[in-house]
Amino acid sequence: MSLRDNQLDTLQVGEKSVDYYRISDLPGIEHLPYSLKVLVENLVRRIDGVNVTEDQVNRLLQWDPEAQPCHEIEFGPSRVMMQDFTGVPCVVDLATMRDAVAKLGGNPEVINPQVEADMVIDHSVQIDEYGVVDAVARNMDREYERNGERYRFLRWGQQAFENFRVVPPGTGIIHQVNIEYLAKVVMTKAGDRGRDLVYLDSCVGTDSHTTMVNGLGILGWGVGGIEAEAAMLGQPISMLVPRVVGFKLIGSMPEGVTATDVVLTITQMLREHGVVGKFVEFYGDGLASVPLANRATIGNMSPEFGSTCGIFPIDQVTLDYLRLTGRSEEQIALVEAYAKANRLWGDTHSPDYVEPEYSEYMELDLNTVVPSIAGPKRPQDRISLNEAKAGFEKALPDYETTSTNQNPVPVSTSFRGDFEITNGDVAIASITSCTNTSNPSVMIAAGLLARAAREHGLKPKPWVKTSLAPGSQVVADYLKKSGLQEDLDALGYELVGFGCTTCIGNSGPLLPEISAAVNDNDLTMVSVLSGNRNFEGRISPDVKMNYLASPPLVIAYAIAGTLDFDFETQPLGTDSTTGSDVFLRDIWPSNEKVAEVVSESVTREMFVHDYADVFKGDERWRSLDVPEGDRFSWDPNSTYVRRQIFFDDMSAEPQPVEDVHGARVLALLGDSVTTDHISPAGAFPASSPAGIYLQERGIEPQGFNSYGSRRGNHEIMVRGTFGNIRLRNQLFASVGEEVRPGGFTYDFVSDKPSTIFDASLDYRKADIPLVVLAGSEYGTGSSRDWAAKGTVMLGVRAVIARSFERIHRSNLIGMGVLPLQFPEGQSVESLGLDGTETFDFLGIEALNSGVTPETVHVVAARPDTYGKPAKVTEFDAKVRIDTPGEAEYYRNGGILQYVLRRLMQ
C-alpha cells in the first residue's frame, strides 16, 4: 500500500465522519515547525509518483534545520487569490491562452482554473473626493467611469471560466476579505469513499501581502501573476524546502504602543537578520495573548521582512476569530478537530505539544516596543517616534536640489482657504491599507484620538489631504456604532472608499494650487500613511518622502502638519476653550479604553450581515453590459484590454535556449530597486511614452487613469517599464551625462539620451539583446508580474544583480529572463563595470541537455570611448535558477508556455 493510501483516515467531527490524510504518526513529524507540517500534509495528499513522490515526503520529514535549502518539492495551493491590478492581466493571459490553444488545433476549454480562484476588486478606487460626506459614492462613480471596460471584461471572465469568482468593487481589500470571509483554514470537498475529504487551506495570491492569511495559520504567500496563472491551471509551485526562522514573542505591549509599532519593529529586526527566501514562524507561550488581528498585521508585513511567509499556528485565538467573523460552528469544530488530530494545534499547554526545532532563533519582548514610524522610503527603516524629527532633518537634504525654495510658499484655495507650505509639510495623511485597517484596535484608537482632538478644538492643517479608506465595510459599521465616525468626520476623515487607495498609489490628486506650488518651487512634501509600502514615487508624484505610521499617528501628523515636529516637546495646538497647550500625550487613548470600545463595538453580526451576499455587488456592478462566449472578442481599439502577444509565435515544442552575445546595458541601477521602480502602478505624465501612446489614440491626460488600471494593455505597460519618476539610471554618469530621474537611458545605437522604451526599439531593430545591471535586493516589493513581463518585452535577456527578492527572481524566470548573481562579494563597482560594455553570456546552452549550470561565464568588453580606455572584464555569474522546475520554465521560454504545452499534450 502506498504512503498516500496508508495515511487516508477517518475523523469524527461531532456527529459527522470525514476523511483526511493523517500526518500525526509520520516519523519525525513532532519536531517539525508548524509551516513544514503544513507542507507535509500538502505532499502526502497529492502523492502521484510523478510530480509528488514518497521520497519528497521522506526528505521533508528528515528536514535538517541547519542545512541550506537543497530538496525540491512541489507545493499545490488549495486556492488562488487575485486583486484587480494584477488579476486583470491574469485573465487577459487566460483568455489569450484559449486563443492560442485554438490556433494550435486544441480545445480552448482546457484553459480553465483547476483550483478555486477568487478576485477581489480593490485596487482601482482613487481618492478624487475627500473631506465631504458623500466621498465614497463620488469616488465609486469615478471608479466605474474609468474602469467600466475592465469590469465588463472581468464579468465576462466570471461567466466564461469555471472556479472563478469576483468580489465586486466597494467591498474591501483583498486580504481583509480573505481573512474575514474567504479563508476556511480547513477545506472540504467530495471524497472517493462516500464521505467528504477535509484538507488544509493554503493559497497563493497575486499580491505580496497575501501573507496576511498566515495569521490564521494558513500557509500562503504572494506570487507573480504568471505563477498564479500556472497554479490556477493545476501546475504545482516548485520550491526548495526552506530554512525556518523561529520568532519567539514574549511579554505584552506597553501603554501607548500599537500593533503597528510592533510590526515595524519586527520588520526592522528581520530585515537586519536576513530572511529572504526563508519561512518565519512565530511561537512561544506569549502567542496566546496576541490577538488574531495583530497576528494578521504581522503576517501582512512578510514581504517587508523579505520572508516567504510569517505564520502563526492554529490555536484557540484562531477559533475565536473564526467565530467573531461569522464562520459556522460546524466549520469551527472541524478546524479544531482537524488541527488537534494532525499535530497542528499550537497551544503550548496542550499535553502532546512539542516545541518545534528551527534553523534560526529570534525573540522580541513586546514590553520593549516603542511608538515608531518608518521612512522616508523603505518599510524597514524604523524610527522611534521621539527621534522622528531628527531623522527627518537628517534625511531632508537628500531630497532637496538647487531649485528647492527654502522659504514658505503662499497658497490660496477655494476648498481649504489661504495658507503657506514649506519643505517637510505633510501633503497626505491617509488611513489606508490592509495592514492596519484590518485591526480594530488601531482603528478604534484613531477614532478615540480624533474624539479627544475634537474636544480640544484641534484640526488637521489645511494643506493636508486627509482620507479614511477601510479594508472592509465592517470597519465602517463599528466606527459608526461606537460614534467615532462622527469624530473622524469632524477632522476631515470622512470615508472615501473601501480599497487599497493611498498605499498602492491611488492617493488621487492634491489640490491643483498645492500641486503647482510644490512643483514650481521644487518643495519636498511628505506623506504619512497607515500602509505597508512607502517606496519612492509610489504614493504621489508630488510627494518625495513617505512615512508609515499607525492610524492614530496618521491623524496626529495631520494635526501637526509637518514631519519637522517633536511630539514630546511641541504642542499640537491650544485648547479652544482654555487656551492651554495640547500635546499628543493629552489626546492619546489608553490601551484599556481602546479594548473597552473594541469589545462593545465589534460584533459577529456585522460580519454575517456584510458578507451575506458578497458576490452580488451594487447596482453599478449588476448593470454592466457583459460580453458572452467562451472566447473573448477583443476590441482592437481598446486602451484597457488587449490580447497578449506572448504566444503569437509559440511552437508546439520549445526551441533550444542559446548563449547571449553582444548584449548592451539598458539600465545600471543601485541597491533596493523595487518593483515599483521597474513597473510603477500610479499616475504617469503626458510626456511619458505611455502618455504619448494614449494621446495618439485620443485619450486626454485627465482620462489616463493609472498604470495599475491599464495592466490589461501590454502596449501601455511596456512603455511604463522602468518608468518610475524616482528611478536613477547611473548609465548616464558612465558616459559623462548628468543622471536624470525617471525612465531614461543612454541609447548606444543612436549615441544619445533617450527614454528606455524608445531605446529598446532601436536595440530591437539592430537585433541587439539587452541586460540590466543592479545591486542588492533587486525586485523588492510588490508581486508585480509586469515588472518581469515589461522587462522581457523591452528585449532584456538577463539581469545581473548582487541579490534578488524571491518573487521577482521567480517572475523573471517565468518570463524567460535569466537572473544572474555577481560572484560573492563582487559588484558592478568592484569589477570595474560602468555599463558601456557589451556582454557575452556563455554556458546557458547547457540547459538544453537537462543540466542547470551553477554559473555562466560573462565577458564584458568596454570599447575605447567616453574618455575611458578599452578593457575586458571576465567573471562567472551565479545562475539563480534554483530548482529543476524553474529550469523547465526557462527552457520553454516561460512558465505559461510550459503550462500551455503540457495542457495541449
UniProtKB/TrEMBL annotation:
GO biological process: propionate metabolic process, methylcitrate cycle; tricarboxylic acid cycle
Required cofactor(s): [4Fe-4S] cluster
One Gene Ontology MF term: 4 iron, 4 sulfur cluster binding
Swiss-Prot/TrEMBL catalytic activity: citrate = D-threo-isocitrate
E.C. numbers: 4.2.1.3
CDD domains: AcnA_IRP, AcnA_IRP_Swivel
One family name in Pfam for this protein: Aconitase
Residues annotated as domain Aconitase/3-isopropylmalate dehydratase large subunit alpha/beta/alpha: 72-561
Pathway assigned to this chain's UniProt record: Carbohydrate metabolism; tricarboxylic acid cycle; isocitrate from oxaloacetate: step 2/2
Keywords attached to this entry: 4Fe-4S, Iron, Iron-sulfur, Lyase, Metal-binding, Tricarboxylic acid cycle
Residues annotated as domain Aconitase A/isopropylmalate dehydratase small subunit swivel: 692-824
Cited NCBIfam families: aconitase_1 (TIGR01341), PRK09277.1 (NF006757), PRK12881.1 (NF009520)
Described function: Catalyzes the isomerization of citrate to isocitrate via cis-aconitate.
Family: Belongs to the aconitase/IPM isomerase family.
Protein name: Aconitate hydratase
